[in-house]
Design brief:
- The structure is a homodimer.
- Helices cover about 40% and strands about 20% of the residues of chain A.
- Chain A is an alpha/beta fold and about 400 residues long.
- Chain A has two domains: about 5-205 and about 365-390, Aldehyde Dehydrogenase, Chain A, domain 1, CATH 3.40.605.10; about 210-355, Aldehyde Dehydrogenase, Chain A, domain 2 (3-Layer(aba) Sandwich).
- Chain A has a seven-stranded parallel beta sheet with strand order 10-9-11-8-7-12-13, sandwiched between helices. In chain A, strands 5-4-3-6 form a four-stranded parallel beta sheet.
Chain lengths: ~400, ~400
């Protein structure tokens, strides 16, 4: 895979996209079996919704694959090229990582997104999905492997493990076989792997995201951004969990905004000043744990702060380094917040919901990294590569 | 530190360089006390040589700092800037990692190299040197801290731990305090940390490096490269440990080359064909462990292979992904080796000894990474940074 030409990789991706469109009924049949499984009865509506496929959803997978075809091949990209004082000609070249393993939740589309990104980046992938989605994933992986074979690439570049049998810890300790493990999903999985993993890991982790409304904000804009960041899709990692408001605008902003959030079904908790601004009936008492909680649900914590500095301190203390937003009409305040907040993505006057490989023009993503090493933010094609120095000489030796 | 202007950081570095030159006698006095310590009596000559300072060595530290001043500031570098389809203006900006911890062997110059690189890259550093060098390190760290203070930067940006007391494992598990741990030195330290570390780690690890002489090599060039890679400084990680020779040139190349290596004091072991080419008296029998051993000494394993493919297979099986060289007169063979070998640095017709931050034009290095994630090869200024997406909008929300 590492040395496959771009055209051959794209041919495989095109074959996969075509098969997804032609054979969506096979996929839906497998998905129906997953949904009919007695264990699926225990899932919440939100989880069933993530597991359920439709013709439109399978078609959208095919479109995602087509978008990845249109992106440039990262492999072979020359990041640096120079002649050293020794006369050596040094090039820093982008190369595939090798074998990537992904552990993911019961979302069958992840199977195709991950496989397509790893094929394009010249890697092999080991997929370990949820047992709830095992049949759906198997149908999708079969299509992917057929696409590889039809382009003359090895089927073995995409392997789907048996989620019922194969151990997550075994994968996380497969030292000379796995070059990178990406665990998606909750903090629980992260905690389980943190002690056990010996292979390199990139956690596609939680987002305890904040929207901070500064004293000089356009309040209409602030309302739209805070509402969107919380309500538009509450179950994802780039949704906001906490709203922070400068005390100077709390009385004007909060009553209308919190009323709108409540009408959208958002359960609200807050500190004393937030509650005082709107009446304690509308907002419950936030406890210490609330500021650290990623609700992933229609719930939001609301706090009033004295200054931008206090907002930054709150964000850096309680945030998970995912996506943080400020609403302000001052360039200086925007810059101050952007520089001082320690996170993968910082927004000035926009919703945190934009943190996403597709929105960022990266085609797709395997997840979103909140760690600082290797990759920070959406994990796309480039993040699935490493580099190699290739140095040409004419017999140079070190003096 | 993260937000200090370039000029202020360079001012601190200049003050450090000046003090190193002016106060080298203080440093030499502290170093003499380290060398006179009864525990130092147990060190080998090579280790004493690494620990020992001289006026020239302290001056050379000052020169290293001056070189780092001359490099560009990586902080604030814009790696990507584009307008997204949503109209958002996205910039990917280089930012410091935060707090870097380095665990290192009894080489006092590392104290200054690491401090200078972290200051320039806007980070703070925690230094945990060897107890053998504690007094030398303390004298150097005092100079560094004075330099910081004289430029109005916080002294606390450089902390030297007490190697006699402070625990390596404590440092490796300081989860919210340490953003990156770089353990230098042997595989033993790596093994000890591998299970224990919970903070992000970049191993500046061992080099089991190879020189492969292809059938079409200029044999005079091959002799010089192999000799240099083994003999010029055998105790460092980019020195070669194994020589592989294509069978077509073994009989012509090996007698003269191995005689020269022997004359330089190199202890030789080899496989049957290598021994047959020069007589068994000159070359001992290599056992399985030899091919996997980083001797870090005047010892070398010699093997004869049937083909370039066999050489690549040997290198990928036994190498540690550090630095690998081929000697060949064919561009095709050079490209084949460069692509197929999985290592941080691959050389065509040059000695492996060039893998070094200074040689690569990076000013200095904190070590050399053989892992694939985050940084591969010399760890310089850029490798001590991460990135942040800063996204400006005009009220955009996700539909």
């Amino acid at each position: 895979m590492a040395r496959a030409p771009s055209a051959q990789k794209d041919e495989a991706l095109a074959a996969i996209a075509e098969r997804l469109r032609d054979r969506f009924e096979d996929v839906l049949e497998a998905n129906a079996a997953d949904l009919a499984d007695e264990r699926a009865a225990g899932l919440s509506d939100a989880l069933v919704d993530r597991l359920r496929l439709s013709e439109a959803r399978v078609t959208s997978m095919a479109e995602g694959v087509a978008q990845i075809i249109a992106l440039g091949d990262p492999v072979g990209e020359v990041l640096d090229s120079k002649v050293l004082t020794s006369g050596l000609h040094l090039r820093k070249v982008r190369v595939p990582l090798g074998v990537i393993a992904v552990i993911y939740e019961a979302r069958p589309n992840v199977t195709v997104d991950c496989a397509a990104l790893t094929i394009k980046s010249g890697n092999a992938i080991v997929l370990r999905g949820s047992s709830y989605a095992q049949r759906s994933n198997a149908a999708l992986a079969a299509i992917v492997r057929e696409g590889l074979a039809s382009a003359g690439l090895p089927e073995a570049a995409v392997e789907l493990l048996d989620a019922g049998r194969d151990d997550v810890v075994k994968l996380a300790t497969a030292d000379r076989s796995v070059d990178l493990l990406i665990p998606r999903g909750g903090e629980e999985l992260k905690a389980a792997l943190k002690g056990a993993a010996t292979v390199p890991v990139l956690y596609a982790a939680a987002g305890n995201c904040h929207v901070y409304v500064h004293e000089d904000a356009d309040l209409e804009q602030a309302r739209r951004i805070a509402y969107n960041a919380k309500v538009q899709r509450p179950g994802v990692c780039n949704a906001a969990e906490t709203l922070l408001v400068h005390e100077a605008v709390a009385a004007e902003l909060l009553p209308g905004l919190l009323e709108a959030l409540r009408s959208a079904g958002v359960d609200l908790v807050g500190d004393d000043r937030a509650r005082a601004a709107v009446g304690e009936a509308m907002v419950g008492q936030a406890d210490d744990a609330d500021w650290d909680t990623e609700y992933l649900d229609l719930k939001m914590a609301v706090g009033v702060v004295d200054s931008l500095e206090a907002a930054v301190e709150h964000v850096n203390r309680h945030g998970t380094g995912h996506s943080e937003a400020i609403v302000t009409s001052s360039e200086r305040a925007g810059d101050e917040f952007s520089e001082a907040v320690d996170a993968a993505c910082v927004y000035v006057n926009a919703s945190t919901r934009f943190t996403d490989g597709f929105e960022f023009g990266m085609g797709a993503e395997i997840g979103n990294s909140t760690q600082k090493l290797h990759a920070r933010g959406p994990i796309g094609l480039r993040e699935l590569t490493t580099t190699k120095y290739v140095v040409h000489g004419e017999g140079q030796v070190r003096e």
